[in-house]
Amino acid sequence: GSGRAARARAVPQRIVASSEVERSYIMIKPDGVQRGLVGEIISRFEKKGFLLKGLKLFQCPKDLAQEHYKDLKDKPFFPKLIDYITSGPVVCMAWEGAGVVASARKLIGATNPLQAEPGTIRGDLAVQTGRNVVHGSDSPDNGKREIELWFKEGELCQWESVQAPWLIE
Ligand code: ADP
């Protein structure tokens, strides 16, 4: 009856401390959007079996680009990098799953697309470091930091894929 329904609503189905869940911030850069590679790039992470927790098309302001790439601020290419990232809309994504950070880096490939292995996103779809179509967090800590930087409270979805039991035993 309604009593059981009320109890079910009051008790969250599963509580997982967010620190236990590994997430990577993946971003399709403006060249990837302009070149019509959005579907292709999202597909690679979907097909692999990670869980999409957040997704938006977004025009990045300069200060956010600078904060995101703050570790590179002394590099000679930093001003060009900021111009590139803010030159058009990007697609911001939060992907979740055990091992997602390292695995996404492998799916993305080396920073220089000419050195990226065929089969990787950059290896298949790009030719230059300054136009390498996609970003992926380099550590679980940075995954958390970058997702907090690019997404607002409430922009991530809490859901479970029906595929889960077919992906994880
Ligand atoms: P990654 O994106 O593979 O983690 P880095 O963190 O070293 O690589 O650099 C961040 C981004 O800065 C690169 O993806 C690329 O867009 C840009 N970048 C790095 N090195 C250069 C370079 N030598 N010239 C131009 N852009 C660069």
TrEMBL record:
Its cofactor is Mg(2+). The keyword ATP-binding applies. Its EC number is 2.7.4.6. Residues 21-158 form the Nucleoside diphosphate kinase-like domain. GO terms for biological process: CTP biosynthetic process; GTP biosynthetic process; UTP biosynthetic process. ATP binds at residues 29, 77, 105, 111, 122, 132. Keywords: ATP-binding, Kinase, Nucleotide-binding, Transferase. It catalyses: a ribonucleoside 5'-diphosphate + ATP = a ribonucleoside 5'-triphosphate + ADP; a 2'-deoxyribonucleoside 5'-diphosphate + ATP = a 2'-deoxyribonucleoside 5'-triphosphate + ADP. The active site is at residue 135. GO terms for molecular function: ATP binding; nucleoside diphosphate kinase activity. Belongs to the NDK family. This is Nucleoside diphosphate kinase. The chain holds residues 54 to 222 of 222 of the full protein.
